[in-house]
Amino acid sequence: MATVLKVEDLKVYYFTSQGTVKAVDGISFTIDEGDVLGVAGESGSGKSTLGYAILGLVPPPGKIVGGRIILDGIEITSLSEDELRKIRWSKVSMVFQGALNILNPVLRIGDQIAEILMHHKGLSKKEALEIAAQHLKLLGLSPDVLRRYPHELSGGMKQRVVIAMALLLKPRLVIVDEPTTALDVVIQAQIMNLLKQLKEQERVSMMFITHDLSLIAEIANKIAIMYAGKVVELGSADNIFERSLHPYTQGLIRSIPSLKHRRALTWIPGAPPDLRNPPPGCRFHPRCPYAMDVCKREEPLLIDVEKGHSVSCWLYIKK
Ligand SMILES: Nc1ncnc2c1ncn2[C@@H]1O[C@H](COP(=O)(O)OP(=O)(O)O)[C@@H](O)[C@H]1O
Ligand code: SF4
Ligand SMILES: [Mg+2]
Question: Measuring from atom 9 of ligand 1, which residue has the nearest CA?
Answer without folding.
Answer: 49
